[in-house]
Amino acid sequence: MDSPKRPRAEAWLQYADELGLTPFFRDRASESAAIDPPLQSPAPASSPLGAAPQPPAAYSAAAAASTASPRHAPAPAAVPSRAAKPAAASPVVPASPGLSLFEAAERIEADSLPRIREDIGDCTRCKLHKSRTNIVFGVGNPKASLVFVGEGPGHDEDVQGEPFVGRAGKLLTQMIEAMSLRREDVYICNVVKCRPPENRLPERDEIATCSPFLFRQLDAISPKVICCLGACAAQTLLQTTQGISRFRGEWMDFRGSKLIATYHPAYLLRNPAAKPEVWKDLQKVMAVLGLQPRRR
Ligand code: URA
Fold first, then answer.
1. In sequence order, which residues have a C-beta less than 8 Å from that of residue 96 and are 6 or more positions away?
2. What is the pLDDT of residues 225-279, one digit of tens each?
3. Residues within 6 Å of ligand 1 by CB
4. How far is CA 28 from CA 34, 114, 250, 277, 280, in A?
5. pLDDT 10s digits, 41-50
6. How far is the CA of 190 from the centre of ligand 1 (A)?
7. Domain that holds residue 241
8. Above 90 in pLDDT, residue 51?
9. Ligand 1 centroid to 115 CA: how many Å?
C-alpha cells in the first residue's frame, strides 16, 4: 500500500482490534494452516498398498488421463503424474467465514444408525431407486474413530448390499489392514446409497437427496477422522467444486471431525503410480489415530 494511506489503514485496523472485530481482516489461508497444520510424514520408500510401477520416461498427465476411470479420475488438469506434480495444496476454505449450510443444519438429538436406516426405509426419493437391487447403507463399527466415505455402490455392492466389496473394495480392505486395522474396526459408507446405473457418477439431485443421510451417519458416529475416497465424497462434504488434487492430503474440519481426502481405490486400480501418495495420506490418518503400520 502506498505510504499516505498506510497510517489511516493502520488506525482503522487498530480501532477494529479494540472493538474485537479482528477476524474480518484475518488472512483465512494462514489462519486455517495455523489451526490445523498438515502433519508431516516422510515420503515412504515403498507402499504397502502394492508396488507402484515405475512410470515410463514419457509418463505424462495426458497419458494418465487417457487410462483413468472417468468415474473416479481426478479432474484432468489435476491428474497426478511424476512429470506434472500438482502444486502444493492449499487448504480449502469455506466460502463464508460463518457456519456452513451443513454446520448450520440441526443435528438430530440422540440420532443413531438404526434410526437413520429406518428413516431411509424402502427409499424412492430419487430416480436411483428404479434400478437398484439393494440399498447400501454402510457397514462397520458404529463407534468407529475412522470413517471412509466413497461415492456410491457399484455392481457387487448393489448385489450384496454392502459397500466396497468389489475390486475397489478389496483394495480398500488392504489399505485398512495396512493401517493395522480390520474392516470391522472402521465404518464404511457412500454419498449415495443406491447404485447409479452403468456406474455413472451420481447426479446433483441424487446427491442432494441422499447426502443428508450421510451427514446424519457421520453425526451419529462422530468419528475422530473422516477419510473421503475420491472427489465425489470430498466435494459433497466440503461443499466445493475444486478438484481433489487441490486439497488431497490436507487436514480439514467437518463438524468437529478431522477430514482428509485421498484418491478413490478404483482410481488406484487404474493408476497404481498414485499408491504412494495415498499411503502418505493414510499415514497422516494413522498419526492422528496413534496407529503403527502393520508388520509385514
Ligand atoms: N465405489 C464406491 O465409491 N463405493 C462402493 O461402495 C464401491 C465402489
1. none
2. 999 999 999 999 999 999 999 999 999 999 999 999 999 999 999 999 999 999 9
3. 150-154, 157, 163-164, 168-169, 190, 266
4. 10, 39, 15, 27, 26
5. 333 436 788 7
6. 7
7. 108-289
8. no
9. 23
The pLDDT tens digits for 167-199 are 999 999 999 999 999 999 999 999 999 999 999
In a domain, 41, yes or no: no
pTM: 0.73
Residue 69 lies in a domain: no
Burial class (CB in 10 A: 0-12, 13-18, 19+), 50: middle
Following CA atoms 158, 204, 176, 261 in sequence, which dihedral angle do they give, to the nearest 10 degrees?
170
Residue nearest to atom 7 of ligand 1 (CA): 164
Probe residue for ligand 1, chosen from 71, 135, 148, 164 as the CB with the greatest number of ligand atoms within 8 Å = 164
- Please tell me the distance between residue 152's alpha carbon and the centre of ligand 1 in angstroms: 5
Beta strand 252-254 with 146-150 is unpaired
Residue bearing the bigger pLDDT, 187 or 59: 187
Asked if residue 91 belongs to a domain, the reply is no
CATH code, 229: 3.40.470.10
Alpha helices (H) in the chain, listed in sequence order: 6-18, 28-35, 61-67, 101-104, 113-120, 155-160, 167-178, 204-221, 231-238, 265-270, 275-289
Instruction: Please indicate, yes or no, if residue 163 is contained in any of the structural domains.
Output: yes
3-state secondary structure at position 250: coil
Task: Classify burial at 60, counting beta carbons within 10 Å of its beta carbon; exposed 0-12, middle 13-18, buried 19 or more.
Answer: middle
Q: How confident is the model at residue 92 (pLDDT cuts 50, 70, 90)?
A: low
CA 12 – ligand 1 centroid, Å? 52
How far is ligand 1, taken at its centre, from the CA of residue 163, in Å?
Answer: 6
Give me the number of domains the chain comprises: 1
